[in-house]
Design a protein that fits this description.
The structure is a homodimer.
Chain A lengths: L1 H34 L3 H32 L3 H34 L10 H24 L2 H26 L6 H34 L9
Protein name (chains A, B): Phosphate-specific transport system accessory protein PhoU
Subunit structure (chains A, B): Homodimer.
Function (chains A, B): Plays a role in the regulation of phosphate uptake.
Chain lengths: ~220, ~220
């Protein structure tokens, strides 16, 4: 019985880790669809989001079944509660990748981003995708050092996000209000995506140590 | 023992309902600080957000203790899991009210919003605050009709949000890029605030019926 139980806990963790890899791929494709005005790729991301929602639903059901059947305590209970939280965060990351793809589709065949701005988003995409994959690693390994790395990786995203605002507010911005609105929202999507990846890693720290790290700046 | 347990469940629900009322008041004040460029009020909201974070933390601890000590099943388990989710949503509503107040503080003594735009935000504030109070009522009453009302109230917010983009994209927008960026983010904060209130109500539907309503458009 105990073995089946441990297996169930491992399965739950693995579905969350797999979900992180899924939303990493979604953001990687969404970013490419944005940078290359690739409608086919944007629609792929949009169509696939429903799968991520389903995996979240299944993960929650697994967590719920564990609570009912096993009444876990201590670390095991922390794993299950963290999985419930984590599933929510990761689904939201999928939604944010979806929003990026929707922006690419909305402006197609026009590019969403002014040429001068595109490299920043290529970088935000890279940082975001790496964060999501690293969150998957942290879920699988429960490696506290890797969890701590996500915090500093997120600083890179915050710097890019802040820099976008400096560029937007600059008097030399010549791309008009529509592009400014798009860039504002898109930068926000990437920044929030990274925040959720960090939140996932923080929950793993909680699983291992029983303590949540200090609050995340929002 | 059973009575103490029911009392604990009620207490947990009441702390979440109280949290909803708190973030309603926070958004009410944040909106006033925005519309009246009232720095004192903005700082009040900013200072008080830490209290909301603490209440969330306490609510999660209560939920955790219930899981450990009572190993609830069926409806009771749904209440506890929904409380864990709800606490996250409501804390985020507090964060969004905080972001509105931060915008008011950042531009002080200048108003953030062009005069033409202010009435829309007065309305978004009113709709958001009403949604948060209604979410509190739904938590206390478990009234499914009231829970359904939140969905249609949220449509009003979505309409205001969409309308803001029409105004922003209009060629007659004369307020420049900085104001456009502020309006874009602020409108997003109000819209997300409303989404989280709806998510809280949906979890109550789940508590009562065992079924989640269909997905929330994001």
């Amino acid at each position: 019985m105990r073995d089946a139980y441990t297996e169930q806990l491992d399965e739950l963790a693995e579905s969350l880790a797999g979900m992180c890899d899924d939303v990493a791929r979604a953001m990687e494709k969404a970013t490419r669809s944005l940078l290359e005005a690739d409608l086919r790729l944007a629609e792929e991301v949009i169509d696939e989001d429903v799968k991520i929602d389903e995996i979240r639903h299944t993960a929650e059901e697994k967590a719920f079944a564990l609570l009912v059947l096993q009444a876990p305590v201590a670390t095991d209970l922390r794993i299950v509660v963290s999985a419930i939280h984590g599933a929510g965060d990761i689904e939201r990351m999928g939604d944010l990748a979806l929003h990026v793809a929707q922006a690419a589709r909305r402006r197609h065949p026009q590019p969403v981003l002014p040429e001068q701005i595109a490299p920043y988003f290529a970088e935000m995409g890279k940082v975001g995708v790496a964060l999501a994959h690293k969150a998957a690693t942290v879920i699988r390994s429960r490696d506290l050092a890797a969890a701590a790395e996500l915090e500093s990786d997120d600083d890179a995203m915050d710097d890019l996000h802040k820099h976008m605002f400096t560029v937007l507010m600059d008097r030399t911005w010549t791309h008009g209000v529509e592009a400014a609105v798009d860039v504002t929202l898109l930068a926000r999507f990437y920044e929030r995506y990274a925040d959720h990846a960090v939140a996932v890693a923080r929950r793993i720290v909680y699983v291992v140590t029983g303590q949540m790290p200090g609050p995340l700046a929002v």
